[in-house]
Write a structure and sequence with these properties.
CATH architecture: Roll
Largest sheet: 7 strands, mixed
Radius of gyration: 16 Å
Number of strands: 9
Distance between the termini: 34 Å
CATH topology: Nuclear Transport Factor 2, Chain: A
Helix content: 25-40%
Strand content: over 45%
Order of helices and strands: HHEEHEEEEEEE
Shape: globular
Structural class: alpha+beta
């Protein structure tokens, strides 16, 4: 018999799968259903934070304009569940064919997701995506592999 924590973890992992599928399909409406209305996102693109689901979706819409088709891969996902909050972390990679026909393998980023159970649904309340940087040069390091 599964515990509530195991059931919730399975639901959160399904939400991550739904995010991946939404990205691959460039499905902004589908993605909107996966984020809390007041989500705070610390993404790799400026500004320092994107506040609210509409700001998060604008960020995805901007990313989608660069690709004819795209893929998103999640690796090494770890999820920790509490009562009505949970967090997870993983490596993610956005890749595909750019609008000019060039194929890109993308780069691996570090991602953290914080979920909140709202009206029975696990929604992303906060996410952060980052790349390591070289302290001496101040530049991001985008060629690392998990």
């Amino acid at each position: 018999m599964s515990t509530q924590r195991e059931v919730d973890e399975a639901k959160i992992r399904l939400q991550i799968d739904n995010i991946v599928e939404g990205i691959r399909a460039k499905d902004l409406e589908g993605l909107k259903q996966l984020y809390a209305a007041d989500v705070v996102s610390f993404d790799v693109e400026p500004p320092l934070q994107h506040v609210g689901v509409e700001a998060k979706l604008k960020n995805w819409a901007r990313a989608f304009t660069f690709f004819q088709d795209l893929r998103y891969e999640v690796r090494d996902l770890t999820v920790t569940v509490g009562g009505d909050v949970a967090f997870g972390h993983c490596f993610g990679r956005l890749s595909g064919t750019l609008m000019n026909g060039t194929t890109t393998s993308g780069m691996w980023v570090r991602a953290t997701f914080c979920f909140q159970k709202i009206d029975g649904n696990w929604l992303v309340a906060h996410d952060q995506v980052s790349v390591p940087f070289d302290i001496a040069s101040g530049k991001g390091v985008a060629d690392l592999e998990p």
